[in-house]
Amino acid sequence: MFFVERKSAMALYQRQNELSYSSSSVFNTTYEPGASAPFGGIYKCTGCGLEIGIAKFHVLPPQNHHQHPSRYTPIRWQPVTLHA
Ligand SMILES: [Zn+2]
Question: Would you say 10 and 72 are in contact if contact means Cβ atoms under 8 Å apart?
């Protein structure tokens, strides 16, 4: 299994000194289900908010990985935190 799931609304952290701010446009990019993750880290489904952790170049969960109600937009994966 390449990823783990978290269903909280937001990613959590405890030690602020282990995270750094980035203005990189990659955080505004969304990726198709089944695409290769360009960076390892936490990604969020823009449709329902499901978060997953994934390693660099592993395949983001495909369309059939999880189902969310039709009132949500289609599954797109957007980076939340990334490995530098
Ligand atoms: Zn979703």
Answer: no
Average predicted confidence (pLDDT) for the chain:
87
How far is ligand 1, taken at its centre, from the CA of residue 17, in Å?
A: 30
Write down the pTM of the prediction.
0.84
Tokens at 45, concatenated: 């489904």
For ligand 1, a single-atom ion, the residues with CB < 5 A are: 45, 47-48, 50, 68, 75
SS3 26: helix
Q: Per-domain residue ranges for the chain?
A: 26-84
- Asked whether residue 34 carries a pLDDT value surpassing 60, the answer given is yes
Centre of ligand 1 to C-alpha 9, Å, is 12
5 CA distance to ligand 1 middle (Å)? 11
